[in-house]
Amino acid sequence: MTSMNRIMPTRALVSVSDKSGLIDLGKALVGYGIDIVSTGSTAQQLRDAGIAVADVSEVTGFAEALDGRVKTLHPAIHGGILADLRKPDHAATLEALGFKAFGLVIVNLYPFVQTVASGAEGEEVIEQIDIGGPAMVRAAAKNFANVAIVVEPSGYGALLSELAEGGTTESFRRERAGLAFAHTARYDSAVASWFGQGSRASFHGDKIGDLRYGENSHQRASVFATYPETPGLALAQVLQGKEMSYNNYLDAEAAIRAAYDHEAPTIAIIKHQNPCGVASNADLASAHRLAHQCDPVSAFGGVIASNRVVDGETAASIAEIFTEVVVAPGFTKEAEEVFGAKKNLRIVVLPKNFTPPMQEWRHISGGVLIQDVDHHFVPAAQWTQVSGEKVDDAILDSLEFAWRAVRSVKSNAILLASGSASVGIGMGQVNRVDSARLAVERAGDRARGSVAASDAFFPFADGLQILLDAGVVAVVQPGGSLRDEEVVRAAQDAGVALFHTGERHFFH
């Protein structure tokens, strides 16, 4: 019946792969006097819980066939879902055929995505391609004027709230219809991608919210979470502070990238998506102080990421400097208390089980570029030393740190390090000479005795010479220039150790 634009269903079709919350839902539906029609294991679980349920085969007059491939594909089911009861002839046709309408459809689909993710192949995957499920979901969504469709257990609460108010409203049914079509679209995309073996790509996202503006105040912006949900920055929880801005998200992502490139406890300070300080230290507070000392001027108003839970001492160190965002896998109670005095500081905790992404998309006009994320670092044991005397373990460790840290710097990139801390960074220049000059200038006196990493080869000796003149004692770079001999000779003449890695870390 209809009241205040509400429809209270008298009959529900329930067929779910995800059984979460099923029993409580079934009991609630029966409590509202709603008859339940169900299939297979869903019907059995309801029946085992003492919930009255009719099998689909009782409605259709046909038993499931072809190993369950055919059970709901029948006019008695789809007629009951698709009948538009606002039209007298539809109601009359149902009556003449002896069919009954469904006012509620609760269906989710075979676990195709999960099956593929498990490493399954061939027929095992194919049997998880749902046919009847998407047909029922789409039929109910099309007929939202008469039918409410729910495709996920997380929607049960909202449904029961609607029923408690006397039935489902049109706005609720329309909203759920949109979610249902998104559900089947994502499902079909996953199937198409599996068949395409990498020749097709699709993106599905759910809006988390609108942002105040984009990079600039005249640009509109929103943030979306990917589907299936991935534990990343988009789903991070803001514990305190102002709402995250578009630029906050970009800088926080860059900071995460820089911090999580290191296995040791690491702090990265970011400004405009470039590091202005990166440091690793067993004591996280020391890591922050060392990272900040790299470029205190640029660090003002920066975004900080930690690859470890932030403790009270580290929080106190951070709180001394104006900072926009701190993002980490967690914060101790003491850290939260320290940050509590900085009401505008955004404190962001990453979702549990966060791991850095393995693939990244970049939009271009008319399409996208998709690549594996640059997570590979050739270990020092596999580098080739092409000049200088053998270096001690401390210098080699520092070079390895620099080689990892330079990966997060926009190209052309030069990073000077002392121990496991950056002391000078030259980034984003259109030639490597300017990047070298910038790194040396920012390091100042700290350049002497430091080590250096270059994200790509030195095309000429001039860029390297700037580092040599500043007193750098060891350098790591990919090698591979047509003028490698010239570059190596400059290092030999200075008596400086030069290593070739055979890989580069461009970051545009």
Keywords:
single chain; 508 residues; alpha/beta; Rossmann fold; Cytidine Deaminase, domain 2; 3 domains; six-stranded mixed sheet; 19 helices
Q: Give the helix level as a range of percent.
A: 25-40%
* Distance N to C terminus: 61 Å
CATH homology-level superfamily of the largest domain = Methylglyoxal synthase-like domain
Could you tell me the strand content as a percent range?
A: 15-25%
Give the name of the CATH architecture of the largest domain.
3-Layer(aba) Sandwich
Task: Write down the overall mean pLDDT.
Answer: 93
Radius of gyration: 30 Å
Number of domains: 3
Strand order of the largest sheet: 11-16-15-14-12-13
Q: What would the principal axes of the Cα set say about the shape?
A: elongated
> What is the helix tally?
19
What profile does the largest beta sheet have? 6 strands, mixed
Protein architecture, described:
- The chain is of the alpha/beta class and 508 residues long.
- The chain has 19 helices and 24 strands.
- The protein has a six-stranded mixed beta sheet with strand order 11-16-15-14-12-13. Strands 19-24-23-22-20-21 form a six-stranded mixed beta sheet.
- The longest helix is centred in the middle third of the chain and has 27 residues, at 170-196.
- The protein is elongated and about 100 Å long.
- It starts with a strand and ends in an 8-residue tail after the last strand.
- The relative contact order is 0.07.
- The model has no long low-confidence stretch (mean pLDDT 93).
